[in-house]
Amino acid sequence: MTEILTTHAGSLPRSPELIEANAARPVGADGLTPEPTAEFREVLRQAVVDVVARQREIGIAIPNDGEYGHLMGSAVNFGSWWSYIFDRVNGLEITGEDIFSSEPVRSAPGDVRLTTFPDRRDWTLFAEAYQDPTSGITVGSQPTFPAATGAVGYSDTGRALIAQDIANARAAFDAAGYEHGFLNSLSPGSGSRIVDAHYGDVDAFLDAWVAVMRPEYEAIAAAGLTVQVDDPSIAENWDQINPEPSVEDYLAFTRKRVDAVNRALVNVPTAQTRFHLCWGSWHGPHTTDIELRHLAPLLLEIDAKYVSFEAANVRHEHEWTVWQELTLPEDKVLVPGIVSHATNVVEHPELVAQRLERFARLVGPERVIGSTDCGLGGRIHPQIAWAKLESLVEGSKIASRRV
Fold this sequence. Notes:
Shape: globular
Largest sheet: 7 strands, parallel
Order of helices and strands: EHHHEHHEHEHEHEHHEHEHEHEH
Radius of gyration: 20 Å
Mean pLDDT: 94
Structural class: alpha/beta
Strand content: 5-15%
Low-confidence stretches: none
Helix content: 25-40%
Protein name: Methionine synthase
Number of strands: 10
Number of domains: 1
Distance between the termini: 8 Å
CATH class: Alpha Beta
InterPro entries: Met_Synth_C/arc (IPR002629), UROD/MetE-like_sf (IPR038071)
GO molecular function, one term: 5-methyltetrahydropteroyltriglutamate-homocysteine S-methyltransferase activity
Protein backbone atom coordinates (compact mmCIF):
# COMPACT_ATOMS: atom_id res chain seq x y z
CA MET A 1 0.00 0.00 0.00
CA THR A 2 1.28 3.47 -0.93
CA GLU A 3 0.39 5.89 1.84
CA ILE A 4 -1.07 9.23 0.74
CA LEU A 5 0.59 11.76 3.01
CA THR A 6 -1.12 14.70 4.70
CA THR A 7 -0.13 18.26 5.49
CA HIS A 8 -1.87 21.65 5.62
CA ALA A 9 -1.44 25.09 4.10
CA GLY A 10 0.24 26.70 7.10
CA SER A 11 -1.72 28.77 9.58
CA LEU A 12 -3.17 26.87 12.53
CA PRO A 13 -5.29 28.20 15.41
CA ARG A 14 -3.23 30.09 17.95
CA SER A 15 -3.45 29.24 21.62
CA PRO A 16 -5.23 31.80 23.85
CA GLU A 17 -1.93 32.44 25.63
CA LEU A 18 -0.15 33.27 22.37
CA ILE A 19 -2.96 35.53 21.15
CA GLU A 20 -2.91 37.38 24.46
CA ALA A 21 0.87 37.74 24.36
CA ASN A 22 0.74 39.04 20.77
CA ALA A 23 -2.01 41.53 21.60
CA ALA A 24 0.03 42.86 24.53
CA ARG A 25 3.11 43.63 22.44
CA PRO A 26 3.74 47.36 22.06
CA VAL A 27 3.65 49.18 18.73
CA GLY A 28 6.53 51.48 17.80
CA ALA A 29 6.33 55.07 16.58
CA ASP A 30 6.48 53.80 12.97
CA GLY A 31 3.38 51.67 13.53
CA LEU A 32 5.40 48.44 13.51
CA THR A 33 6.09 45.96 16.31
CA PRO A 34 9.56 46.06 17.92
CA GLU A 35 11.65 42.99 18.72
CA PRO A 36 10.00 40.60 21.19
CA THR A 37 10.90 40.38 24.86
CA ALA A 38 12.36 37.30 26.48
CA GLU A 39 9.00 36.60 28.13
CA PHE A 40 7.22 36.67 24.76
CA ARG A 41 9.83 34.44 23.16
CA GLU A 42 9.23 31.80 25.82
CA VAL A 43 5.44 31.90 25.30
CA LEU A 44 6.03 31.52 21.56
CA ARG A 45 8.54 28.68 21.97
CA GLN A 46 6.18 26.63 24.13
CA ALA A 47 3.23 27.32 21.82
CA VAL A 48 5.19 25.97 18.85
CA VAL A 49 6.13 22.83 20.80
CA ASP A 50 2.46 22.29 21.61
CA VAL A 51 1.10 22.87 18.08
CA VAL A 52 3.65 20.53 16.52
CA ALA A 53 2.84 17.87 19.13
CA ARG A 54 -0.86 18.28 18.28
CA GLN A 55 -0.12 17.67 14.60
CA ARG A 56 1.82 14.51 15.50
CA GLU A 57 -1.04 13.31 17.71
CA ILE A 58 -3.55 13.74 14.88
CA GLY A 59 -1.26 12.06 12.37
CA ILE A 60 -0.29 14.93 10.05
CA ALA A 61 2.71 13.67 8.10
CA ILE A 62 4.34 16.97 7.12
CA PRO A 63 4.01 19.64 9.83
CA ASN A 64 4.96 23.26 10.31
CA ASP A 65 5.03 25.66 13.24
CA GLY A 66 1.42 26.74 12.67
CA GLU A 67 2.82 30.08 11.45
CA TYR A 68 3.03 30.99 15.11
CA GLY A 69 5.94 33.34 14.43
CA HIS A 70 3.57 35.42 12.29
CA LEU A 71 2.01 37.81 14.80
CA MET A 72 -1.74 37.36 15.29
CA GLY A 73 -3.25 39.33 18.16
CA SER A 74 -6.88 38.22 17.76
CA ALA A 75 -8.66 34.90 17.30
CA VAL A 76 -10.02 36.02 13.89
CA ASN A 77 -7.32 37.23 11.52
CA PHE A 78 -7.25 36.73 7.77
CA GLY A 79 -4.04 38.64 7.10
CA SER A 80 -1.18 37.44 9.30
CA TRP A 81 0.24 35.36 6.42
CA TRP A 82 1.04 38.72 4.79
CA SER A 83 1.32 41.33 7.52
CA TYR A 84 4.01 39.42 9.45
CA ILE A 85 6.63 40.57 6.95
CA PHE A 86 6.19 44.25 7.74
CA ASP A 87 8.11 43.86 11.00
CA ARG A 88 11.00 42.31 9.05
CA VAL A 89 11.50 44.90 6.32
CA ASN A 90 13.20 48.29 6.30
CA GLY A 91 11.72 51.22 4.41
CA LEU A 92 8.11 50.88 5.60
CA GLU A 93 5.99 53.20 7.71
CA ILE A 94 2.37 53.95 8.49
CA THR A 95 1.35 56.94 6.35
CA GLY A 96 -2.44 56.90 6.64
CA GLU A 97 -2.79 55.75 3.02
CA ASP A 98 -2.86 52.06 2.21
CA ILE A 99 -4.51 49.48 -0.04
CA PHE A 100 -7.86 50.05 1.68
CA SER A 101 -7.91 53.85 1.72
CA SER A 102 -6.22 54.79 -1.56
CA GLU A 103 -8.16 55.97 -4.61
CA PRO A 104 -9.35 53.23 -7.02
CA VAL A 105 -7.12 52.55 -10.03
CA ARG A 106 -8.41 51.68 -13.49
CA SER A 107 -6.68 49.32 -15.93
CA ALA A 108 -6.73 49.40 -19.72
CA PRO A 109 -5.88 46.83 -22.42
CA GLY A 110 -2.13 46.25 -22.30
CA ASP A 111 -1.85 48.22 -19.05
CA VAL A 112 -2.84 46.02 -16.11
CA ARG A 113 -2.81 47.71 -12.71
CA LEU A 114 -4.01 46.60 -9.28
CA THR A 115 -6.77 48.69 -7.77
CA THR A 116 -7.58 49.15 -4.08
CA PHE A 117 -9.00 46.31 -2.00
CA PRO A 118 -12.47 47.94 -1.54
CA ASP A 119 -12.65 48.30 -5.34
CA ARG A 120 -12.23 44.57 -5.99
CA ARG A 121 -14.82 43.26 -8.41
CA ASP A 122 -16.21 40.57 -6.07
CA TRP A 123 -16.60 43.16 -3.32
CA THR A 124 -18.37 45.68 -5.55
CA LEU A 125 -20.58 43.10 -7.30
CA PHE A 126 -21.86 41.88 -3.93
CA ALA A 127 -21.60 45.23 -2.11
CA GLU A 128 -24.93 44.81 -0.33
CA ALA A 129 -23.90 41.44 1.09
CA TYR A 130 -20.41 42.61 2.05
CA GLN A 131 -21.85 45.58 3.94
CA ASP A 132 -24.46 43.50 5.78
CA PRO A 133 -22.99 42.23 9.08
CA THR A 134 -25.60 39.45 9.16
CA SER A 135 -24.68 38.04 5.73
CA GLY A 136 -21.95 35.71 6.99
CA ILE A 137 -19.40 37.29 4.66
CA THR A 138 -16.23 38.35 6.41
CA VAL A 139 -12.83 39.61 5.35
CA GLY A 140 -11.62 39.95 8.92
CA SER A 141 -10.58 43.19 10.57
CA GLN A 142 -8.55 45.51 8.37
CA PRO A 143 -5.80 47.37 10.22
CA THR A 144 -3.86 50.18 8.60
CA PHE A 145 -1.00 48.70 6.62
CA PRO A 146 2.34 50.43 6.01
CA ALA A 147 3.52 51.95 2.75
CA ALA A 148 7.02 51.80 1.29
CA THR A 149 8.44 55.29 1.87
CA GLY A 150 12.06 54.30 1.28
CA ALA A 151 14.14 51.52 -0.22
CA VAL A 152 12.86 48.18 1.10
CA GLY A 153 15.25 45.56 2.42
CA TYR A 154 15.24 42.57 4.75
CA SER A 155 16.22 43.98 8.13
CA ASP A 156 18.43 42.76 10.96
CA THR A 157 15.22 42.34 12.94
CA GLY A 158 13.91 40.14 10.14
CA ARG A 159 17.01 37.96 10.29
CA ALA A 160 16.60 37.58 14.04
CA LEU A 161 12.91 36.72 13.72
CA ILE A 162 13.37 34.10 11.00
CA ALA A 163 16.21 32.58 13.03
CA GLN A 164 13.81 32.42 15.97
CA ASP A 165 11.14 30.75 13.81
CA ILE A 166 13.65 28.19 12.55
CA ALA A 167 14.98 27.41 16.03
CA ASN A 168 11.47 26.99 17.47
CA ALA A 169 10.36 24.79 14.59
CA ARG A 170 13.46 22.58 14.59
CA ALA A 171 13.25 22.01 18.35
CA ALA A 172 9.52 21.22 18.17
CA PHE A 173 9.95 18.86 15.19
CA ASP A 174 12.72 17.02 17.00
CA ALA A 175 10.67 16.75 20.19
CA ALA A 176 7.69 15.32 18.28
CA GLY A 177 9.80 12.91 16.26
CA TYR A 178 9.45 14.60 12.87
CA GLU A 179 12.38 14.43 10.47
CA HIS A 180 11.02 17.05 8.09
CA GLY A 181 8.77 20.10 8.17
CA PHE A 182 8.13 23.41 6.47
CA LEU A 183 7.92 27.12 7.21
CA ASN A 184 5.76 29.64 5.37
CA SER A 185 7.17 32.73 3.72
CA LEU A 186 5.65 35.53 1.67
CA SER A 187 6.08 35.79 -2.11
CA PRO A 188 7.64 38.87 -3.75
CA GLY A 189 4.44 39.50 -5.72
CA SER A 190 2.30 39.52 -2.59
CA GLY A 191 4.77 41.77 -0.77
CA SER A 192 4.69 44.29 -3.61
CA ARG A 193 0.94 44.81 -3.24
CA ILE A 194 1.40 47.40 -0.50
CA VAL A 195 1.38 51.07 -1.45
CA ASP A 196 4.61 52.17 -3.14
CA ALA A 197 5.50 55.73 -2.18
CA HIS A 198 9.17 55.45 -3.13
CA TYR A 199 9.99 53.55 -6.35
CA GLY A 200 7.28 54.90 -8.62
CA ASP A 201 7.52 51.88 -10.92
CA VAL A 202 5.61 48.61 -10.51
CA ASP A 203 8.37 46.42 -11.96
CA ALA A 204 11.11 48.10 -9.94
CA PHE A 205 9.08 47.63 -6.76
CA LEU A 206 8.56 43.95 -7.59
CA ASP A 207 12.30 43.55 -8.19
CA ALA A 208 12.98 45.12 -4.81
CA TRP A 209 10.76 42.52 -3.13
CA VAL A 210 12.69 39.73 -4.83
CA ALA A 211 15.77 40.94 -2.95
CA VAL A 212 13.73 41.38 0.25
CA MET A 213 12.45 37.80 0.38
CA ARG A 214 15.56 35.93 -0.79
CA PRO A 215 17.31 35.95 2.64
CA GLU A 216 14.27 34.45 4.37
CA TYR A 217 13.95 31.64 1.82
CA GLU A 218 17.64 30.87 2.03
CA ALA A 219 17.68 30.82 5.82
CA ILE A 220 14.81 28.32 5.96
CA ALA A 221 16.40 26.04 3.36
CA ALA A 222 19.84 26.25 4.97
CA ALA A 223 18.30 24.89 8.17
CA GLY A 224 17.17 21.79 6.27
CA LEU A 225 13.50 22.82 6.25
CA THR A 226 11.14 23.19 3.30
CA VAL A 227 10.19 26.70 2.22
CA GLN A 228 6.52 27.26 1.41
CA VAL A 229 6.12 30.38 -0.69
CA ASP A 230 2.64 31.78 -0.06
CA ASP A 231 1.40 33.60 -3.14
CA PRO A 232 -2.35 34.20 -3.34
CA SER A 233 -1.53 37.14 -5.61
CA ILE A 234 -1.04 34.83 -8.60
CA ALA A 235 -4.77 34.04 -8.64
CA GLU A 236 -6.24 36.71 -6.37
CA ASN A 237 -4.88 39.67 -8.37
CA TRP A 238 -7.41 38.88 -11.12
CA ASP A 239 -10.23 40.11 -8.87
CA GLN A 240 -8.23 43.22 -7.94
CA ILE A 241 -8.07 44.51 -11.52
CA ASN A 242 -10.86 46.80 -12.63
CA PRO A 243 -12.32 46.48 -15.18
CA GLU A 244 -11.75 42.77 -15.82
CA PRO A 245 -8.68 42.35 -18.08
CA SER A 246 -8.23 39.91 -20.92
CA VAL A 247 -6.75 36.58 -19.89
CA GLU A 248 -3.76 37.30 -22.14
CA ASP A 249 -3.02 40.61 -20.42
CA TYR A 250 -3.42 39.04 -17.01
CA LEU A 251 -1.09 36.15 -17.76
CA ALA A 252 1.57 38.59 -19.01
CA PHE A 253 1.17 40.54 -15.76
CA THR A 254 1.30 37.32 -13.72
CA ARG A 255 4.31 35.84 -15.50
CA LYS A 256 6.43 38.63 -14.03
CA ARG A 257 5.33 37.52 -10.56
CA VAL A 258 6.14 33.90 -11.32
CA ASP A 259 9.55 34.99 -12.55
CA ALA A 260 9.98 36.98 -9.34
CA VAL A 261 9.39 33.84 -7.26
CA ASN A 262 11.96 31.91 -9.26
CA ARG A 263 14.55 34.67 -8.95
CA ALA A 264 14.02 34.85 -5.21
CA LEU A 265 14.42 31.05 -4.95
CA VAL A 266 17.57 30.95 -7.08
CA ASN A 267 19.72 29.57 -4.25
CA VAL A 268 17.10 27.20 -2.78
CA PRO A 269 16.94 23.54 -3.92
CA THR A 270 13.71 22.84 -5.79
CA ALA A 271 13.18 19.72 -3.68
CA GLN A 272 12.93 21.98 -0.60
CA THR A 273 10.25 24.27 -2.00
CA ARG A 274 6.46 24.31 -1.85
CA PHE A 275 4.37 26.89 -3.66
CA HIS A 276 0.91 27.76 -2.35
CA LEU A 277 -1.75 29.36 -4.53
CA CYS A 278 -5.24 30.37 -3.46
CA TRP A 279 -7.94 32.79 -4.53
CA GLY A 280 -7.95 34.70 -1.26
CA SER A 281 -9.04 33.32 2.10
CA TRP A 282 -11.90 35.72 2.82
CA HIS A 283 -15.36 34.16 3.19
CA GLY A 284 -17.23 35.63 0.22
CA PRO A 285 -18.89 34.67 -3.10
CA HIS A 286 -15.69 34.51 -5.19
CA THR A 287 -17.65 34.64 -8.45
CA THR A 288 -14.92 36.75 -10.03
CA ASP A 289 -12.13 34.20 -9.43
CA ILE A 290 -10.04 33.32 -12.48
CA GLU A 291 -10.24 29.68 -13.57
CA LEU A 292 -7.40 27.34 -12.64
CA ARG A 293 -7.02 26.15 -16.23
CA HIS A 294 -5.56 29.54 -17.14
CA LEU A 295 -2.99 29.45 -14.34
CA ALA A 296 -1.99 25.79 -14.09
CA PRO A 297 0.64 25.89 -16.88
CA LEU A 298 2.30 28.86 -15.16
CA LEU A 299 2.29 27.02 -11.83
CA LEU A 300 4.33 24.24 -13.36
CA GLU A 301 7.03 26.76 -14.34
CA ILE A 302 7.71 27.65 -10.71
CA ASP A 303 10.87 26.13 -9.25
CA ALA A 304 9.00 24.21 -6.56
CA LYS A 305 8.59 20.47 -6.20
CA TYR A 306 5.28 20.77 -4.35
CA VAL A 307 2.30 22.61 -5.86
CA SER A 308 -0.36 23.57 -3.29
CA PHE A 309 -3.76 24.89 -4.43
CA GLU A 310 -7.42 25.08 -3.43
CA ALA A 311 -9.45 22.04 -4.52
CA ALA A 312 -12.09 21.64 -1.80
CA ASN A 313 -14.19 24.78 -1.72
CA VAL A 314 -17.32 24.83 -3.84
CA ARG A 315 -16.00 27.46 -6.24
CA HIS A 316 -12.99 25.39 -7.30
CA GLU A 317 -13.53 21.71 -6.45
CA HIS A 318 -14.64 20.92 -10.00
CA GLU A 319 -11.27 22.05 -11.35
CA TRP A 320 -9.52 18.80 -10.44
CA THR A 321 -10.18 17.90 -14.07
CA VAL A 322 -7.55 20.44 -15.13
CA TRP A 323 -4.96 17.81 -14.22
CA GLN A 324 -6.51 15.41 -16.72
CA GLU A 325 -5.43 17.77 -19.48
CA LEU A 326 -1.94 18.65 -18.19
CA THR A 327 1.02 16.31 -17.89
CA LEU A 328 2.52 16.70 -14.45
CA PRO A 329 6.33 16.78 -14.70
CA GLU A 330 8.01 13.84 -12.98
CA ASP A 331 9.65 16.08 -10.40
CA LYS A 332 6.37 17.69 -9.25
CA VAL A 333 3.96 16.68 -6.48
CA LEU A 334 0.37 17.93 -6.18
CA VAL A 335 -0.74 19.24 -2.77
CA PRO A 336 -4.46 19.86 -3.30
CA GLY A 337 -6.73 21.34 -0.67
CA ILE A 338 -9.00 18.49 0.45
CA VAL A 339 -10.70 20.22 3.39
CA SER A 340 -11.77 23.85 3.26
CA HIS A 341 -11.15 26.87 5.46
CA ALA A 342 -14.31 28.51 4.07
CA THR A 343 -16.99 26.39 5.77
CA ASN A 344 -17.77 25.32 9.31
CA VAL A 345 -18.97 21.97 8.00
CA VAL A 346 -16.40 19.27 8.78
CA GLU A 347 -15.78 17.16 5.70
CA HIS A 348 -16.69 13.48 6.08
CA PRO A 349 -13.67 11.14 5.85
CA GLU A 350 -15.35 9.37 2.95
CA LEU A 351 -15.55 12.65 1.01
CA VAL A 352 -11.89 13.29 1.86
CA ALA A 353 -11.04 9.86 0.47
CA GLN A 354 -12.99 10.44 -2.73
CA ARG A 355 -11.28 13.77 -3.32
CA LEU A 356 -7.85 12.27 -2.77
CA GLU A 357 -8.60 9.33 -5.04
CA ARG A 358 -9.36 11.65 -7.95
CA PHE A 359 -5.86 13.05 -7.86
CA ALA A 360 -4.16 9.76 -6.96
CA ARG A 361 -5.65 8.02 -9.99
CA LEU A 362 -4.43 10.82 -12.24
CA VAL A 363 -0.81 11.19 -11.07
CA GLY A 364 -0.21 8.32 -8.65
CA PRO A 365 -0.69 8.25 -4.86
CA GLU A 366 3.02 8.87 -4.28
CA ARG A 367 2.65 12.25 -5.98
CA VAL A 368 -0.35 13.49 -3.99
CA ILE A 369 -0.27 15.04 -0.51
CA GLY A 370 -3.64 15.91 1.03
CA SER A 371 -3.82 19.40 2.46
CA THR A 372 -6.17 22.26 3.34
CA ASP A 373 -7.38 24.87 0.89
CA CYS A 374 -5.77 27.64 2.90
CA GLY A 375 -4.68 28.30 6.46
CA LEU A 376 -7.21 27.37 9.15
CA GLY A 377 -5.84 29.63 11.87
CA GLY A 378 -7.82 32.83 12.33
CA ARG A 379 -10.50 31.74 9.85
CA ILE A 380 -12.58 29.07 11.58
CA HIS A 381 -13.03 28.09 15.21
CA PRO A 382 -10.09 26.08 16.60
CA GLN A 383 -12.28 23.14 17.58
CA ILE A 384 -13.57 22.90 14.00
CA ALA A 385 -10.10 23.41 12.50
CA TRP A 386 -8.61 20.48 14.40
CA ALA A 387 -11.64 18.31 13.57
CA LYS A 388 -11.05 19.03 9.87
CA LEU A 389 -7.43 17.90 10.16
CA GLU A 390 -8.52 14.72 11.93
CA SER A 391 -10.95 14.01 9.10
CA LEU A 392 -8.21 14.72 6.55
CA VAL A 393 -5.95 12.09 8.14
CA GLU A 394 -8.73 9.54 8.49
CA GLY A 395 -9.82 10.04 4.87
CA SER A 396 -6.25 9.71 3.61
CA LYS A 397 -6.02 6.28 5.24
CA ILE A 398 -9.19 5.19 3.46
CA ALA A 399 -7.91 6.48 0.12
CA SER A 400 -4.50 4.87 0.61
CA ARG A 401 -6.11 1.46 1.06
CA ARG A 402 -8.13 1.88 -2.12
CA VAL A 403 -5.49 3.09 -4.53
